[in-house]
Amino acid sequence: AARIIQNMDPTADPCKDFYQYACGGWLNRHVIPETSSRYSIFDILRDELEIILKGVLETSDQGDREAFQKAKILYKSCMNESLIEQRGSLPLLEALRMVGDWPVASADWTKTKEPSWSMEENLSIMNSRFNKRVLIDMFVWNDDRDSSRHIIYIDQPSLGMPSRDYYFNGGNYQRVREAYLQFMITIAKMIREDKNVSRDDSFVQEEMSKVMELETEIAN
């Protein structure tokens, strides 16, 4: 009750401005941070929780359960920025190698990789090793017909952009669509450069446009 009263503004007339009467105390004591689009008690709790989690993750992992050790290892790997900078694109190139490389970032993919490349095998690798669903989404969940058991669900995955609107609508959607395509082109060029593959801007543009066409067809 005390917190509710603290967040109210009893000096306001509820018949004229009920919002100010009910929430005026909160508005007077809190300012939306420049980094946020909203601010509520849940955002405050989240910030406090992140501080607590940071402290937990930075403590020694001796005697921890395996799950806690994994969380601390992941946290340390993300915080080691000098090693991240030193490794550069090597982790990404290794991930691409595991799934049969990337045609647009290869000089002779159709000759050296395509004959032995299996879509089914590589989709399973991306799912199991990288938790990335492409073309098909598979997950285990409660059976809708029998909640006492779990079954495998097969579904469509999420799109590269937030929703199908981004692939067809104009205005801001179109600007995001153009930026999305340019982002793909930029990444492909960077990877080709890191792999010492000759520069071929027209080839990259053509291939990434095909990717965009395929995503658009899937969205449709």
From TrEMBL:
Where is coiled-coil annotated?
none
Give the GO biological process terms.
protein processing
Give the GO molecular function terms: metalloendopeptidase activity
Enumerate the Pfam families for this protein. Peptidase_M13_N (PF05649)
Q: Which residues cross the membrane?
A: none
Q: Which domain of life is it from?
A: Eukaryota
List, alphabetically, the InterPro entries matched: Peptidase_M13 (IPR000718), Peptidase_M13_dom_2 (IPR042089), Peptidase_M13_N (IPR008753)
> By its UniProt entry, which PANTHER family does this protein fall under?
MEMBRANE METALLO-ENDOPEPTIDASE-LIKE 1, ZINC METALLOPROTEASE FAMILY M13 NEPRILYSIN-RELATED
Q: What is this protein called?
A: MMEL1 protein
Species = Oxylabes madagascariensis (white-throated Oxylabes)
